[in-house]
TrEMBL record:
Domain of life of the source: Eukaryota
GO biological process per UniProt: protein export from nucleus; protein import into nucleus
Name this protein carries in UniProt: Importin N-terminal domain-containing protein
Major location (coarse): nucleus
Importin N-terminal domain boundaries: 24-71
GO MF annotation terms: nuclear export signal receptor activity; small GTPase binding
UniProt keyword terms in alphabetical order: Nucleus, Transport
Pfam families attached to this UniProt entry: IBN_N (PF03810)
Amino acid sequence: MAADIGHISQLLNATLDPSQHRKAENALKQEASKAQYSLALLNIVSSDSLPANTRLAASLAFKNFIRSNYV
């Protein structure tokens, strides 16, 4: 799971870069099909060792994941 958190946090950071945005979004959509995706996002949000912009991107991704899958 630690590898997933690192990979997902890198993808979230890439979504903030206009030149990498689309590719990162597509990769996150693939990650969203994995069972531990939502838990990984919450772990990123609660991690004090990651930058605030990564944690904010993870919280928005979690909100969108819940909205598209459960609401």
